[in-house]
Design a protein that fits this description.
2 copies of one chain form a homodimer. By secondary structure, chain A is of the alpha+beta class. In chain A, the strands form 8 sheets. In chain A, strands 3, 7, 8, 9, 10, 11, 12, 21 and 24 form a 9-stranded mixed beta sheet that branches. In chain A, helix 1 packs across helix 11 (442-452) and helix 2 (44-63) packs across helix 11 (442-452). The two termini of chain A are 24 Å apart. Chains A and B meet through strand 1, strand 2, helix 2, strand 3 and strand 4 of A and strand 1, strand 2, helix 2, strand 3 and strand 4 of B.
Chain lengths: 568, 568
């Protein structure tokens, strides 16, 4: 490919609002361009990377017997209504209507669609297990698209779906996908770790995310340094510390706390540490009833856990009427005497706490859970740095940032039950499909590769996903001898099966080398007046600091050999 | 691929509403399945065909220097508003809004998007010409999806865009695409002919469609049997016959024609041929003004020509108030004395016609154009069978049905003028890009291949686009010797690079052969107890009537050789 006709120009500077190194480099190197907020176009260079990423995914899906197909972007509302996701996904999806008023979703995923197909294509247990996948554009109405391709409003996802006879079969399919994912990310040089995760909108119980640990990530990942425990903060638990149990605590007594409605204000005015305080949140459950959640002042509430406990898709706070009904006063809510279902977080010990008195300007001292109030015990708190690992019971957990590049869900019969999607079992009865779904975001993977493979000059592509393998540079391109030699080198390399970007532009050495470092093709081969004098070509690896002069006569053999070794 | 685990089952019968042979076979052979009206999923077999079709297109685009990229499905309303197509395309497109009320289109095509990119990526004439393309899903809110993949509401289109310095450059790019299209359709065994066409919603002047002439098509194509003139009916013209000129026609006189408001009724009651009648249509132009169009009774009005003449996106008929204002009476409209702008079709001769008298139950006889009424001359009529070719002036035109599998538009500066999309020209001024766009529908191509390559038993795939090259059939698969031999044949063929579908199902010979004929893979290799007795394999081409027994020892060589020759 001649760079003089390449569609897409490199930028000296990234736009000021580019948020991460990968975002800046992706824009500067003409990998992708926004058409609107969160809507990106792959320029030709980036398109080649995306296709290589897709091909790696395809090969590993095919290897485990997953069959490629393609479902449409637009899917009818009726299908989503069979599982209740038409309403549940409303806040995050794009919808459209045809001119007859029929509604469609710009699909969020394809569980409903693929179950609908499975119902007609799979009649008997003899056709199971079955796994299918496709690469298809998904729509997500993200309120805040962020950091280039890391969080967008439309992206191509590889989504795979497994159908099994029973949970043992699902476990096998799930493990096959888990193994494929490990190979996929390794092949694209992403150090992704598998992390326990919340199932969220997908339903079911077991789920893993593949997270690349990097500071640009927006997910918080809890990691044990002593064992292999890794979990998304949304799902992470901890091994409880030895409970603090105080005895002979006096009965609760009121303290006057005028205008002291926040935890921080309370700590300051009473001069206590936050672990001595209780905070009580008033929320509404799925049915609209008021629910109180009680935690120590030093623990943050975990929204994902709360959503699951409350059975809601978002955490809703109680309103003024709810406060009145529960006998609570805003800013002074406490569990004692509260008229509401009460959930007590597992981190609340049997000790004396200071809590709201449900009375203006007043708190209670010496409040003890189990004595002064009761409630269902739940785990609704965030793990924090230094908590004890729930698996090995020894490691002190640490919290990292991660980018989720893939996720897998074992949802079992979550969809087939709702959709009555069944097959004829060996015993003659009809049984629901037992399924899982398995996603990888192509664009997010590409940018995460950049986030983790660059230096201050530009991208350093792993060769398996590089837009081209060799960048040939002619210096200057208007020198006939140089041009003839460079043309010949390009032709011979291409004939040897090497992918070449050829900088034949009428630009200075400075511009050409800067662009070459920015675009980050693994090998650079420079043909210049100087190298020609010695009948040589200058070869430099993008990741190396030193270049090397190699004889022109063996240059094709040397370079194509180096490419082959790097690809192996 | 083992057929026992193939996702997608063949059907004995097509659904009753399947409209064409290709539609029926596509469904029966598990090529694609509808998820809703006009929304289709490629099942694994069909997906392979679609990908081969895409790859052929890709290779021919790459060959002419067209660069692959990928623009998003959702594109912002603001972009479409710059060219007025947000409104113009409303009736045929799907729109969506984000939760902030910002509007997007499920893109109809990508002219606006690609021009927006060209404005930022192409700065100077040195970067021109440039051609880019992508394969992307398009949305079309078709009121009447039809005949399977022939007319759908979402489909993948290859759309390419060229950018040139001037019209001479555009002409070259257009010819390069025209040539690529010819090769593409030839490689996929589609006998597509290039046909002059109307530019419709795409703007510009020059356009061609690639039409496959088949009775299942919904387009009408005018073809000259003597020369290479081919045009879509929407655009077709004819060489005028020697005009009939009658002299000494008496002045118009009234005839009483009670309740005779149709051309047919008039012919019957007056016993005249339709060429002696004039019909006058009252329409509204883009500005809402009334316009009369006058044609002979034996000529049909051509809506596409009318739209162009009136500058509207759809032909709108005049209402009651318009009739009153124009002094016309419904059913008795005529050009004499009409108070409206009058367009006279070129097929109206200088002879005596019978026309409406603009008076209830009354017509006029001896109405002569130019004498009794005047108007602008336009070509607003359909060509009909037997008209004279406008190109060679000799051939008698015939009218065929066609499926449009591709189209190319040379729109020039239609978009760049509206979007102010310019580049720095060699003379230092800024000039608008001169462009064209070039589309091919993948799904429609696939089904058109089926429409033109089948017999009463099933599909007969051209090998270049066949889902697999060889169908190996084990009979019966539960016989160990048969199974072992068939397994080995499949393995050896695959090792030789041949794509094999392996019918390892526990089904009868009848079912397996019927499915094999239905799916239509080019070569069938049967391993049965009978063939094993002679140490042979039965080889049959799908398109041949006779099978042949070949020695097992050389079977792989024979079959892979036959595949290679067929592919060459």
């Amino acid at each position: 490919m001649r760079q003089s006709s390449l569609f897409g120009r490199t930028l000296r500077e990234a736009p000021a609002d580019a948020q991460t190194p990968g975002h800046r480099l992706m824009l500067r190197a003409a990998i992708a361009r926004p058409l609107a907020s969160g809507l990106y176009t792959w320029l030709p260079l980036g398109f080649r990377v995306a296709k290589k990423v897709e091909q790696i995914i395809r090969e590993e899906m095919d290897r485990i017997g997953c069959q490629e197909m393609e479902m449409p972007v637009l899917t009818p509302a009726e299908l989503w209504k069979t599982t209740g996701r038409w309403e549940a996904l409303e806040p995050i999806t794009f919808r459209t209507k045809d001119h007859n008023g029929r509604e469609f979703m710009v699909s969020y995923t394809h569980e409903e669609a693929v179950h609908s197909h499975a119902m007609s294509e799979i009649q008997s247990y003899k056709q199971l297990p079955a796994m299918v996948y496709h690469f298809q554009s998904k729509g997500r109405d993200e309120a805040r698209p962020r950091a280039g391709l890391l969080r967008v409003r439309e992206f191509v996802m590889k989504d795979a779906y497994s159908f099994d006879i029973d949970h043992a079969g699902l476990e096998k399919s799930y493990q096959a996908q888990h193994g494929a994912y490990a190979r996929i990310f390794e092949r694209m040089s992403l150090a992704a770790v598998s992390v326990e995760s919340d199932t969220g909108a997908m339903g079911g119980d077991t789920a893993h995310e593949f997270q690349v640990l990097t500071d640009v990530g927006e997910d918080r990942i809890v990691v044990c340094p002593r064992c292999d425990y890794r979990a998304n903060m949304e799902k992470a638990t901890r091994s409880p510390e030895a409970p603090i149990s105080e005895t002979n605590v006096p009965a609760p007594s009121e303290i006057s706390t005028p205008s002291t409605t926040s935890m921080e204000a309370l700590q300051t005015s009473l001069k206590v540490t936050p672990d001595r305080l209780l905070k009580t949140l008033l929320l509404r459950d799925a049915a609209g009833n008021v629910v109180a959640v009680v935690l120590p002042g030093d623990r943050d509430v975990n929204e994902a856990k709360l959503r699951k406990i409350l059975g809601t898709s978002e955490v809703k706070f109680a309103g003024a009427a709810d406060f009145t009904a529960a006998g609570a006063v805003a800013g002074y809510v406490g569990p004692v005497g509260l008229r509401a279902r009460t959930l007590v977080d597992s981190s609340v010990d049997a000790r004396a706490y200071i809590a709201g008195a449900n009375k203006k300007d007043t708190h209670l001292r010496n409040v003890v859970a189990g004595r002064d109030f009761t409630g269902e015990r739940v785990d609704a708190h965030d793990v924090r740095e230094g908590d004890t690992c729930p698996k090995c019971k020894q490691g002190a957990l640490s919290i990292k940032r991660g980018v989720e590049v893939g996720n897998i869900f074992a949802y079992g019969t979550y969809y087939s039950d709702k959709m009555n999607a069944t097959f004829l079992a060996e015993d003659g009865t009809r049984k629901p499909f037992v399924g899982g779904s398995y996603g990888i975001g192509v664009g997010r993977s590409v940018q995460t590769i950049i986030e983790t493979h660059h230096d201050d000059k530009g991208i350093i592509w792993p060769i398996a996903v590089a837009p081209y393998e060799v960048h040939v540079i002619a210096l200057p391109s208007n020198d006939e001898a140089v041009r003839t030699a460079a043309d010949a080198l390009v032709k011979d390399l291409e004939r040897a099966g090497v992918e070449v970007l050829y900088d034949d532009r009428d630009e200075s050495a400075g511009v050409k080398f800067a662009d070459s470092d920015l675009i980050g093709i693994p090998f650079r081969a420079t043909v210049s007046k100087r190298t020609l004098k010695e009948d040589k070509v200058e070869l430099k690896e993008r990741s190396a600091s030193e270049a090397e002069l190699i004889p022109r006569t063996t240059a094709v053999e040397r370079i194509s050999g180096a490419v082959r070794r790097a690809l192996a």
